[in-house]
Amino acid sequence: MNDNNDKTKYWLANSFIELMNTHHINKITVKDIVDNCGMTRQTFYRYFKDKFDLVNWYFEKIADNSFKKMGNGLTLEEGLIKKFQYIRKEQNFFRQAFLIEDCNSLINYDFKCIYSFYLSVILKKLKVDNIDEDLDFALRLYCYGCIYMTIDWLKNGLYPNEEAIARNLINAMPNQLANIILH
Prior knowledge:
This protein is mainly α. The chain has 2 domains: 1-48, Arc Repressor Mutant, subunit A (Orthogonal Bundle); 51-181, Tetracycline Repressor, domain 2 (Orthogonal Bundle), CATH 1.10.357.10. The protein has helices at residues 3-20, 30-37, 41-47, 51-64, 76-89, 91-97, 106-126, 133-155, 162-171, 175-181.
């Protein structure tokens, strides 16, 4: 995608975020989003399948600039802290986006992102093509736990601070994962 495509996507995302400040996510339509930023439905559907696809794209951009930079200059803790700082900055967006639990929801998308990220780290460190069922179970359990603790953090007014929630999530990592990911 070129810069103009990303610029258009950000305009749509910002329009959606602006609407979330005064409307519940379930009440916002694609028409509302495009009317709010002066675009057409055709433009919206050129880039996104639906409003949840837009939510997931926006989340991916945040993840690309935080959590996914682990190993590329950021430690896991630094990446998580940065992710939680973005979530704090856009807390209304995330609070609403995490309310939806259908197949195209942010919860499912976040799970896929976190799981894929950690799985690639594990495969690379173990120098294997796949992992066994027990390790996969621990990884899936940990990823879901991270998501639901993030939602809980949002619901509790972003307490504790970003550093503490990142540290808590890392400390809660099952030993069989921590021995691979953190070493």
